[in-house]
Structure formats: C-alpha cells, structure tokens
Amino acid sequence: MPCPFLGSMNQTFLRNYSSVLLKQYGSYCPILSRSFRSLGVDETKCPFIQKNSIISEAPKEMTEDIVESAKPIYQYENFFSKQINAKKNDYSYRVFRKVSRLAAEGAYPQALEGSDNRRVTVWCANDYLGASRHPVVQDAAISAIRSYGTGAGGTRNIAGNSQMTEKLEHEIAKLHKKPAALIFSSCFVANDATLSTLAKILPGCIVYSDAGNHASMIQGIRNSRAPKHIFRHNDPTHLRQLLAESPAGVPKLVVFETVHSMSGAICPLEEMCNIAHEYGALTFVDEVHAVGLYGKHGAGIGEERGVEDHIDIVSGTLGKAYGNVGGYIAGSSLLIDTVRSLAPGFIFTTALPPPILAGSLAAIRLLASEEGRSLRAKHQAIVRYLKLSLLIAGLPQMPSVSHIVPVPITGADKVALVAESLMKRGHYVQAINYPTVARGEERLRFAPGPYHTPGMIDSLVTALIESFHENNINFNQFMINGACRECSMEYKVDIAYEEPYKYPIAV
C-alpha cells in the first residue's frame, strides 16, 4: 500500500531528504513505528523503503556541490547590551533607588534607603496628602482583606462585579458630578484604553492632542490609528486654529490635562472646553495630578473653577493623592457603557483587589470631607514655603502655579549628580530626564506635602545650595549672610503653617 503522506510529495524532494523525513516523522507512521519497536531504529528495515526504491540517499553527483554551513543566529544579548550602554552613555539610564517609604507616625515622610536602611526624607512621591498611611484608609484596606482576601480572582467579566467595585464607581461618578464611572488597573490603562477605543470606533474621528500630554494619552491616540493634530501646550488660540480647519459633522476628540506633571502648569480649562464644544468636539480631560488636591471635595481643577459640566470625559487616578492604585474615567452612562463593552484594556485585565477598592473608597470620602480640606490647606502652605525659600536662596525654579515645584538643571549628567549629592545629605528626589522631558529640559521635581515641615525645607534648601556648589552649577545667590545682596534687607520667611493632626496608630 503506497504511503499517503510520502506519495503526495515531490519525488526529487523525497530522494534528497528521505533520511531527514524518516527521522523527524517516522514515529508517526503506523508501519514504521511498529518496525521501530520490533527491529530498533534501523529505518532501512521499513517495508515501505524495501519495496519502494524511490526513497534512497541522494546520488553523489547531486550533493557534491552542497556546502553544509551553520546558519547565523542573531546575537540578541549583544543588541540588548548596546541599547543599555547607549542609555548609560547619555545619562538617561534609569536607576531605581532602593527606597522603602515609612508610614508610621513620626517617620512619614521619611524612607529607608539602600542596603543599610539609611533614613532619608522623600520629596518626589505622588502620595501628595499622605492618604496611603492615613489610619482610616489603612483600616478600610485591612478590613477588606479579612473579609474578602487579597485578590480579585480574575477579570470582572469572569470573577464577577463586587459590591465594593460598584460602590467605588458610584462614589467617583458622584465626586465628578457625572452619571457613571469606570475603574481600571491604572490610569495609564484608563487613558490608553478609552482613547484608543473611542477614536477607533467613532467614524472618521479626528483627535486634537495637547503637545504636553502624558505618555498614556499619546499611546492611546497612537493605538487608535485615528488622524491627529497636535496643538501647542495649553494654547487655546492654536487649538481654535486647528479646529477651524476641521470638517463639519465629523467626530472630534480634544485631549489635554489640567495640571502638568513635570512643569506644574495648569491649563486654561474653561476656555479650551468652550472652544472644543464650539466645533462639536468631545473633551477628554486628564485630572490625574489634580484629583484630591483641588476643589471643595477634591474633584480637581474642574470643581475648583466651577466648570465640571464642561468636561465630557474626565480621567483620574487612585494612585496619587488617594494613596492607592488604579485609574478611572467618568462621563455619560452610554459613553461609559461603550468603553466597558469594547475596550480590551478593561475587558481582559484583572479587576482591582478588595483592599485597593476599600482603601480608595475610604480615601475619596476622606479627602471630600472637612479633614480633606484641612490637609489641602496645609499642603498649599508648605508648597508656598518651599517656593519662597528657593526664591530667597536664589535657586532656580520653573514658574509653577500648582503643588509641583520643578528645579531646572540642564544636562542629564548634571541633574543626576545633584540628585546623588542630595541623597548623600539625606534628601531623596529623582532626577527627571529624557524621555519624560525633552533633552536639555532636565530637572528635579519636588512634591512637598502637608507632613513636610518648614524645618525639613530649610534643610533641603541648604543641601541644594551645597549640591550646586559641589557640582559646579552656577545660580544667582540673592542672599548673603541672611540679607538681600542688592539692598541688604534681611529676609525672614514667615508663613501660616500648622502641624498636621497626629493620628493615633494602633499598636
């Protein structure tokens, strides 16, 4: 009986590669497999081979011109090594410090750094109001672990929608005065999934993106493959020019953020929303660095300026001022349901675990309360103290109207050296360089909070001056022996500041 497998092949191919075929596929042949078991692995005893002379070694004249050579293998490790070396050579290589932030009363906002657990003061964490270590938030998370465990058990589609999930989404919608909200595993995922989904499914959608937008929004717009236009950072005039050239009746998304994470700038929110709506666009506004910090209830710049209704889609985070992890969007019920039903970044991601849900819910309610307003007032006071202290010391700072205080130091090598010098003096702040900011716009980014004290800031400013001198970085020294160099007027920084309430910690 002819073999159906070999019979279907080109005869010349069989002559040339019979031995290879037999070794690779012989065990699958019912005749060969029996022969192998009874006679060993000698394929020449195969009854098919014995009866069919077409299968044999290729004649010498057909193989004498074939040169066996090893096929080259791509050197993956060499490639990776070159990539890393390039990052190190231009000082953009990221070094992750071993920093364990402390939560205990009297220790926060300090951390244990390095293998010897040296204490340092942390200046760059986005846990802006210390909500992560607030007893109310901690107790809620611990209680949830005891009741429901540490994990969600899967995606919401598979493992189910917990009551805490629905309570948290209801609380977020209420905070932003929107009909509905949807939570994600992070705000990066929230921005990416929402923008990529909406811009992809809206027919002919055009996206208008602020030049200063966060990487998460840029990624979402790219993933949608929708046509896009970039308008100058926080420039409503340029936005209007671009929208004026857009075709009428076409879906449009205008995408920007309120508080810029690296410069501290705050956008002209109302004007930009009004321009977008004038041309029939939906507004997607990232309030990640504003939620919890601005507005009577901590809903962000939209609430503070009374223009929440101008925002069609607001995105926020549970991982900064609210001290947990996760992201969210809020908007109309139909829009939220559309993203819930169509966004892969939501559908196929494991749900937030119970302690995060409970902790986030407690943090939102805390910061919407009178205590939250008190924390925000103390936060702003200590931010003003740092800005004024830098000014008096003559140290450079970028103009910022928010809680973010950037100190520019040009050159990735220089900013890294200053950060290292500060660490030696007990102050941890991460150097910011490319690709977070453009080359030549490197900086240190300070984020003081209500638990930093004027004494801590005085120590930081002294350390900064010493670090600048140590690394030969020039700055305008306005103060000489405590007085202005120009008029000899003595400066004293007086600012209203109260120590935050000391919460009892259960032992």
UniProtKB/TrEMBL annotation:
Native organism: Danaus chrysippus (African queen)
User: What name has this protein been given in UniProt?
Assistant: 5-aminolevulinate synthase
Q: Which residues form a coiled coil?
A: none
Q: Which domain of life is it from?
A: Eukaryota
What Pfam families does the entry give?
Aminotran_1_2
Keywords, sorted A to Z: Acyltransferase, Heme biosynthesis, Pyridoxal phosphate, Transferase
Q: Where is the Aminotransferase class I/classII large domain?
A: 120-464
Needed co-factor(s): pyridoxal 5'-phosphate
Instruction: Show the GO cellular component annotation of the record.
Output: mitochondrion
